[in-house]
Specification:
alpha/beta; 2 domains; six-stranded mixed β-sheet; about 50% helix
């Protein structure tokens, strides 16, 4: 009988050793993920938010999770980042909602006028809306959403004269980079010229346009600041972004690595992305001031005039969404207004005198 017990003990111990080895091997498996980003590696948000996050994941996982950062258009076209993430061509995508017209309808709410004081407020609002409303989450159901954020706010940059009032803007030819931007400019009384960031400098330099509606950040990188010397801080609107993982790749990660990613993204990364964009906008404005560029901030009274002029744009968008079947869109907009007021009070915004 003793021999039987000894045999069973040895058998059980051997099985335990073998099983523990299997578990140890499984838990020590390394995972390498490809992150296709909207921003270049030298972009302030890449430097201060996204790339440090990838390194942190490697350190906290003791090397088991390696995330490789890729510059825009290097492993997939920017405008196909979402489709590439869904298909698994990239493991993590981070791109703009503007590329997917008709797909991310509710994210267009960030493009409505005069909601935010900066990217941090807009980003935190956007992430809160994603978590509160099933309709919002449903638009990204094909991926594992990690965080969402919003761009730096859109300002007005002109070549020959400053814009302080609606009368100053009337009749000017203003380059815009999106359909929503064109709609806002036309409603304000100017002539919208849809164009691309890469073509903006030459258009301004050659006198084909009087100015451009865009955030502060691209001015230097696209040489726009060589032509446009006058800057009106309007805080007109923003645009949305998403960061998500291929669902199958997410499901393949062990629970501890999933928890590691979840604990470091979401609201934390939404806020950090927005803050770095605001910090970058402030730094850019300070550099341009050193180069004798002139900045003007709309007075509260003048902003109210612009706001009243653009109110039909908001109502038009709400009705369009209702026709598309978003029955709750007015509640979503109401929540957006409430959240933006809350976060505007808590954040510094994207411009400082």
């Amino acid at each position: 009988m003793r021999h039987i017990y000894r045999y069973l003990f040895i058998l059980t111990l051997s099985a335990a050793i073998i099983f523990s080895g299997i578990v140890a091997g499984w838990s020590a498996e390394k995972f390498e993920l490809k992150l296709a980003c909207e921003y270049m590696e030298r972009h302030p948000t890449s430097i201060n938010a996204f790339i440090p996050w990838t390194k942190q994941m490697g350190e906290l996982s003791q090397g088991r999770l390696q995330i490789q950062f890729y510059n825009p258009n290097s492993i997939c076209p920017n405008n196909q980042a979402y489709a590439s993430t869904v298909a698994g061509a990239v493991d993590i995508g981070a791109g703009g909602t503007l590329y997917n017209v008709g797909k991310f309808n509710l994210a267009e709410i960030t493009e409505l006028p005069f909601l935010f004081n900066g990217a941090e407020s807009a980003s935190m609002t956007m992430w809160e809306l994603y978590n509160r409303f099933p309709e919002w989450r449903n638009e990204y159901k094909e991926v594992k959403m990690l965080w969402q954020w919003a761009s730096a706010l859109y300002q007005l940059h002109t070549v020959k004269k400053p814009v302080r009032t609606l009368e100053d803007l009337k009749g000017l030819k203003i380059i815009t980079w999106s359909a929503s931007g064109s709609n806002l400019i036309r409603t304000l009384g100017a002539n919208a010229i849809e164009g691309k960031p890469t073509d903006t400098y030459l258009a301004l330099e050659r006198g084909m346009a009087d100015g451009v509606l865009c955030p502060l950040a691209p001015l230097r990188s696209f040489k726009i600041s060589d032509a446009a010397k006058y800057h009106t801080i309007v805080n007109l609107n923003a645009s949305g972004f998403w960061a998500g993982m291929n669902q199958a790749k997410w499901d393949s990660l062990p629970p501890d690595l999933q928890k590691l990613i979840s604990n470091s993204t979401g609201k934390k990364m939404a806020q950090l992305a927005g803050k770095t964009l605001d910090d970058g906008a402030i730094q850019d404005s300070q550099l341009l001031k050193q180069q004798k560029h002139q900045f003007f901030v709309l007075s509260p009274a003048e902003q109210e005039k612009w706001r009243a002029k653009l109110q039909p744009v908001t109502e038009e968008w709400l009705k369009k969404m209702e026709k598309k079947g978003y029955k709750n869109v007015r509640e979503i907009y109401k929540t957006t207004v409430s959240l933006s007021k809350e976060y505007n009070q808590k954040t510094k915004g994207g411009y400082a005198e």
